[in-house]
Amino acid sequence: LTRGLLVPDELAEGLLEYCFSAHLPLLAFRVLSRIDGQRHLLTAMERAGNIHWLRVAEKILRQTCTDYPCWCGNETLEYAISQMQQGHRHFRLLLDECLVRLRGEDNFFSYPA
User: I need a surface site. Which of 14, 21, 48, 97 has the fewest CB within 10 A?
Assistant: First the structure.
């Protein structure tokens, strides 16, 4: 992946799955430059007490695939709020990013630099 080799998407997705199962956040961070990690966001957020997993979660949040990504749904937001109430403050990152998306503040044309 880092040397520009052509790697099938299925292989890259399998590698990302392995990174999460084997707790390899630095490699997961690199793989995310190649594929969409939206469905792994909550796992990364749960592990975000570790700075490397926090970086993985931030990278997933920066990936844009639709106007309202899957992690911006009711169940996910309820889970994030409950985690924040239990003292897991890094879930605030998820709530803040979702609010940005819902308000449309990430639209350059609405809010130019």
Answer: 21
